[in-house]
């Protein structure tokens, strides 16, 4: 109930729906005591009076009956029938669904086969067949509409029940010797009732429409009794001469169904966790940029990040995923960025080309310069022409990052064709050549394969081939070998190494694995909680790590250069980046912590290539 | 692919049989006996018994089901007593008219629905999205028969742009242009609800896909945003949209009954309503079985389309 109230407060449209619906329902309930005329009193002298006639606010129909009165009584009837149909369908459907889902096996099979059969019918056709058998009449129309909606409930509730029936508390109840029906009553039912209610609220509008439809066809309520549908049906003969007799009931149906839909949408949105977390909002073509100042160009790297800041704005909270990160990479050089997951290393990489999903991502400061030109806030077309052409990405998990419905050859050819005016055949030939260059056997036939038809290692090679497609200057590789086994991993690393030596490629290599770093990178930056905490040439940094965090990371690697490397746990968790402590972010997990560490900002200090963000580093003179 | 289609056709056989069983069972619920219904309540008992024997109604239900099924397989759906002509002839003739109406409406609602959903998703929370969302809400809330009546008032009576009802003009019509003029209103009125449903689901499917990693890959490759949406995202979203199209086809096909009533369209839906009111049971039975069977076959087409689109489906 609190949830409901909160929802209405947040969603104005749902509130409007609720208010309108409540008003209509109250009117319908109160008709018998309202001072309106009797609905079935005919007065042939006063036929087809227009609305606002004396004594007849909405006019009269073809028999001179008061339309306002008929409308209210009809609304009452339509609401009652729609609601009853929804309840009946929900009860029967839920019963079938629970029995099928709980007992499973042959019972399930039998029930669901029957349900599938019913669903094979075009919906309204089945209702017509049932009315045909039972004969026209409002009660029979109600039964028909309820019956055709049973499968919908049975299916939904079965799905939920199957999930619940396998949970521990149900097993426990079974072991405790509870009977089936008692388990269903006390363990299953309480869990499915909310689902039933929600399903009902979304279908009730539909049921009102359907019963109105059958009445409209003359198969529902019979004269003189009228629901909204049969009012419309009777009015149809005089549509042209007395349109108000049609408009009045029609608009009422529209109002009722629309307010139910508004309310139902509101409920659905409120209960959908994806909507609240922003997971259903569309990421823009490039990350949103909101920064006040642009730093002066600095450094001579081919790609230079200057005090880059990227945040996630979710609800009222701000997550500082990347906090003033400065980096630089030169042609032919490989820079490693290492850190635990959530340290901001991937977000740093994606920020460069505006690939951080936005919303919720926002770049709030700093610059990313390619050959001196700032990419942050660059026009979309500039970014696009550089993406994949001069600066290319290799992503983790190519099963998710390659398009599942395009052949890999087409995906490669497309990467070329969006930057170069090339014919189809020519681009395809280049794609095959690229596959060959990353040592995929039988490239001609593999190019015709879909991603799901390839092995993980092969897919990763396709990812690399795609990054190489336009002979870029910089490749940003985000954990490209994590999902692979050690042999394949080694092959891919040596492939990348060879490519950068042969083509003068600059590589930014993001990983959590020191073994990989040692094998490939010239320099390393260690990230923690969105910041660089230590930076230096690979050899020196591995030999004598200065930051306690780096030291811990290295200690966690079992044997450098052999076996399956995983970061073993460091006690404690990285801080949530929306509530960073003052001073050193690593302090809560650090063994060398002193009071000064938590007093204030600590700079990234050092000489030359070696810098560290720590007051009491592990080595005196880093 | 050929083998896949064949397998799907074979797997449709039990469904088709199930449909005949359900229809037969429903018709068995009819109170009283059909002979009395046909001959009227003043018929002599001898006449009723004679007719019952002629119609084979004195046999047990199971036997009668198989006789009925066997007859249908040979194309004999029985005789409509009210129209005094073979059920199948009447159904085929009427179904043609319904197919034209529902077919055009289906093309309209799939095209417009997917388009609206894609635009809505691409401009999420923008003015276009809000406008579409509102129109869609209106569309799924309005009864199609009421909408049809209002269209008649506006376009036929007030503006005189289009004919009020029927399939062809009574005098001088009969060509394609005449048919199209008569089709505009009923087909659009029929398409509205389905368009709304399809637009909603397409928007949702697109938004879901746009969050996927392979969309980021396409952007990282430098694919222009327009192509990211219309190519990469839409292609992947279609996998979720096509089954919805199949379901909506059923709604359009059976929802045609309201539109046929409003616009006096000589389709199978109106035939069924008339038959129900006249208690012409064989005609109802035959019509329902025929339309349901067509819908089952149409769903196979949907499945095949799906398998062509998605290489991950084993064919
Ligand atoms: S600054 Fe202090 S708390 Fe932070 S890592 Fe260094 S020693 Fe540990």
From TrEMBL, chain A:
PANTHER family: DIPEPTIDE TRANSPORT ATP-BINDING PROTEIN DPPD, OLIGOPEPTIDE TRANSPORT ATP-BINDING PROTEIN APPD. The keyword Acyltransferase does not apply. PROSITE patterns: ABC_TM1, ABC_TRANSPORTER_1, ABC_TRANSPORTER_2. It is found in: Cell inner membrane; Cell membrane. NCBIfam families: oligo_HPY. It comes from Actibacterium naphthalenivorans. InterPro entries: AAA+_ATPase, ABC_Ni/Peptide_Import, ABC_transporter-like_ATP-bd, ABC_transporter-like_CS, MetI-like, MetI-like_sf, Oligopep_ABC_C, P-loop_NTPase. CDD domains: ABC_NikE_OppD_transporters, TM_PBP2. One of its GO terms (biological process) is transmembrane transport. The lineage of its organism: Bacteria, Pseudomonadati, Pseudomonadota, Alphaproteobacteria, Rhodobacterales. The chain crosses the membrane at residues 12-34, 77-103, 188-209, 246-264. Residues 75-264 form the ABC transmembrane type-1 domain. The keyword Zinc-finger does not apply. One of its GO terms (molecular function) is ATP binding. GO terms for cellular component: plasma membrane. Residues 305-554 form the ABC transporter domain. Keywords: ATP-binding, Cell membrane, Membrane, Nucleotide-binding, Transmembrane, Transmembrane helix, Transport. SMART domains: AAA (SM00382). It is a peripheral membrane protein; Multi-pass membrane protein. This is Peptide/nickel transport system permease protein. It comes from the Bacteria. It holds the Pfam family BPD_transp_1. Belongs to the binding-protein-dependent transport system permease family.
TrEMBL record, chain B:
Keywords: Cell membrane, Membrane, Transmembrane, Transmembrane helix, Transport. It is found in: Cell membrane. GO terms for cellular component: plasma membrane. It holds the Pfam family BPD_transp_1_N. It is a multi-pass membrane protein. Residues 95-301 form the ABC transmembrane type-1 domain. The chain crosses the membrane at residues 9-27, 95-119, 131-159, 179-201, 236-261, 281-302. Its main location: membrane. One of its GO terms (biological process) is transmembrane transport. The keyword Transmembrane applies. Signal peptide: none annotated. PROSITE patterns: ABC_TM1. Belongs to the binding-protein-dependent transport system permease family. This is Peptide/nickel transport system permease protein.
């Amino acid at each position: 109930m609190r949830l409901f109230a909160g929802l209405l407060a947040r969603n104005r449209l749902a509130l409007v729906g609720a208010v309108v619906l409540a008003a209509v329902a109250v009117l319908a309930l109160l008709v018998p005591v309202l001072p309106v005329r009797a609905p079935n009193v005919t007065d042939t002298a006063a036929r087809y009076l227009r609305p606002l006639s004396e004594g007849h606010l909405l006019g009269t129909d073809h028999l001179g009956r008061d339309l306002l009165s008929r409308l209210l009584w009809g609304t009452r009837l339509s609401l009652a029938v729609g609601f009853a149909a929804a309840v009946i369908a929900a009860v029967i459907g839920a019963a079938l669904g629970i029995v099928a889902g709980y007992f499973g096996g042959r019972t399930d099979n039998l029930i669901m086969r029957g349900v599938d059969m019913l669903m094979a019918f075009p919906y309204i056709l089945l209702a017509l067949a049932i009315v045909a058998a039972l004969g026209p009449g409002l009660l029979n129309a109600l039964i028909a509409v309820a019956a055709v909606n049973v499968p919908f409930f049975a299916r939904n509730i079965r799905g939920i029940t199957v999930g619940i029936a396998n949970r521990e508390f149900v097993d426990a109840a079974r072991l405790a010797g509870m009977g089936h029906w008692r388990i269903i009553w006390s363990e299953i039912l309480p869990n499915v009732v909310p689902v039933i209610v929600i399903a009902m609220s979304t279908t009730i509008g539909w049921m009102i429409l359907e019963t109105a439809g059958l009445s409209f066809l003359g198969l529902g309520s019979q004269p003189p009794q009228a629901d909204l549908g049969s009012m419309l049906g009777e009015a149809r003969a005089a549509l042209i001469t007395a349109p108000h007799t049609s408009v009045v009931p029609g608009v009422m149906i529209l109002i009722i169904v629309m307010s139910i839909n508004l309310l139902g949408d509101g409920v659905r949105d409120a209960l959908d966790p994806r909507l609240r977390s922003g997971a259903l909002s569309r990421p823009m073509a490039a990350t949103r940029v909101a920064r006040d100042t642009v730093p002066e160009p600095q450094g001579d790297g081919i790609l230079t990040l200057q005090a880059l800041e990227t945040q996630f704005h979710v609800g009222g909270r701000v997550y500082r995923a990347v906090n003033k990160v400065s980096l630089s990479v030169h042609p032919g050089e490989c820079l490693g960025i290492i850190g635990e997951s959530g340290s901001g290393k991937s977000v740093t990489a994606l920020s460069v080309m505006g690939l951080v999903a936005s919303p919720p991502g926002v770049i709030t400061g700093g610059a990313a310069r390619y050959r001196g030109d700032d990419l942050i806030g660059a026009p979309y077309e500039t970014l696009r022409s550089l993406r994949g052409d001069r600066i290319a990405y290799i992503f983790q998990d190519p099963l998710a990052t390659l398009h599942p419905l395009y052949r890999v050859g087409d995906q490669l050819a497309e990467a070329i064709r969006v930057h170069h005016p090339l014919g189809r055949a020519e681009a395809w030939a280049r794609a095959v050549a690229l596959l060959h260059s990353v040592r995929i056997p039988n490239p001609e036939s593999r190019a015709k394969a879909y991603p799901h038809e390839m092995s993980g290692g092969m897919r990763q090679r396709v990812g690399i081939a795609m990054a190489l497609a336009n002979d870029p200057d910089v490749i940003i590789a985000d954990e490209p070998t994590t999902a692979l086994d050690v042999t394949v991993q080694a092959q891919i690393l040596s492939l990348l190494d060879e490519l950068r030596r042969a083509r003068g490629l600059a590589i930014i290599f993001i990983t959590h694995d020191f073994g990989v770093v040692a094998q490939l990178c010239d320099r390393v930056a260690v990230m923690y909680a969105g910041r660089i905490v230590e930076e230096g040439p690979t050899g020196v940094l591995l030999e004598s790590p200065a930051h306690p965090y780096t030291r811990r990371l290295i200690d966690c690697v079992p044997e450098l250069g052999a076996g399956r490397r995983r970061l073993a746990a460091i006690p404690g968790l990285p801080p949530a980046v929306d509530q960073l402590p003052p001073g050193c972010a690593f302090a809560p997990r650090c063994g060398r912590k002193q009071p000064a560490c938590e007093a204030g900002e600590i700079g990234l200090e050092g000489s030359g290539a070696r810098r560290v963000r720590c007051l009491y580093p592990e080595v005196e003179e880093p | 692919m050929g083998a896949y289609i064949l397998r799907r056709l074979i797997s449709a056989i039990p469904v088709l049989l199930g449909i005949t069983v359900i229809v037969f069972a429903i018709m068995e619920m009819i109170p009283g006996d059909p002979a009395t219904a046909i001959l009227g309540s003043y018929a002599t008992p001898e006449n009723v018994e004679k007719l019952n024997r002629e119609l084979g109604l004195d046999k047990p239900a199971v036997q009668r089901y198989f006789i009925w099924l066997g007859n249908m397989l040979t194309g004999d759906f029985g005789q409509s007593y009210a129209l005094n002509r073979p059920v199948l002839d009447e159904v085929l003739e009427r179904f043609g008219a319904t197919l034209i109406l529902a077919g055009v409406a289906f093309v309209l609602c799939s095209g417009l629905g997917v388009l609206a959903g894609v635009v809505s998703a691409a401009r999420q929370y923008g003015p276009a999205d809000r406008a579409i969302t509102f129109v869609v809400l209106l569309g799924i809330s309005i009864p199609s028969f009421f909408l049809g009546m209002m269209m008649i008032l506006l376009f036929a009576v007030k503006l005189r742009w289009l004919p009020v009802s029927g399939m062809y003009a009574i005098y001088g019509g009969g060509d394609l242009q005449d048919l199209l003029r008569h089709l505009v209103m009923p087909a659009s009125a029929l398409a509205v609800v389905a368009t709304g449903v399809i637009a909603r689901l397409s928007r949702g499917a697109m938004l879901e896909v746009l969050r996927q990693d392979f969309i980021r890959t396409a952007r990282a490759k430098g694919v222009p945003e327009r192509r990211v949406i219309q190519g990469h995202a839409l292609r992947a979203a279609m996998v979720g949209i096509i089954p919805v199209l199949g379901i909506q086809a059923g709604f359009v096909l059976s929802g045609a009954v309201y539109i046929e009533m409003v616009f006096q369209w000589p389709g199978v839906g109106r035939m069924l309503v008339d038959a129900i009111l006249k208690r012409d049971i064989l005609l109802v039975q035959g019509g329902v079985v025929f339309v349901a069977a067509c819908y089952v076959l149409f769903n196979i087409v949907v499945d095949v389309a799906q398998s062509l689109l998605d290489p991950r489906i084993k064919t």
